[in-house]
Design a protein that fits this description.
By secondary structure, the chain is α+β, with helices and mostly antiparallel strands. It contains four helices and five strands; from the N terminus they run H-H-E-E-E-E-E-H-H.
Length: 121
Amino acid sequence: MRIDKFLWSIRVYKTRSQATEACRNGHVKINDMQVKPAKEVAVEDIIQIRLHSFTKTIQVLDFPKSRVGAKLVNLYMLDITPEEEYKKLDMVRERVSLQRPKGSGRPTKKERRDIEKWLYD
């Protein structure tokens, strides 16, 4: 199964085009090698996915026939992400929540785009 289709079917990315774009931009590695979207995935492969400032590491267990529900994702992949990555993610979330002054309301569209650009690029 293609890596972009696999990542879409196990709900790492919302759309297949997002998964393809992530592969093209070098955010996806299989066994520590950057891959193109058409790279075939094998069972027991280790996939590293850079999602913003967080690197998720998974191991392929099986291949779904099509996109699966969230409850069935664990049948097809094993999350082997180190605990440090989750701590890093918590720190980023905490930092973002501390930046906005209390009582200032929701961010405007421009502020939201600026925050996302700062976080994800």
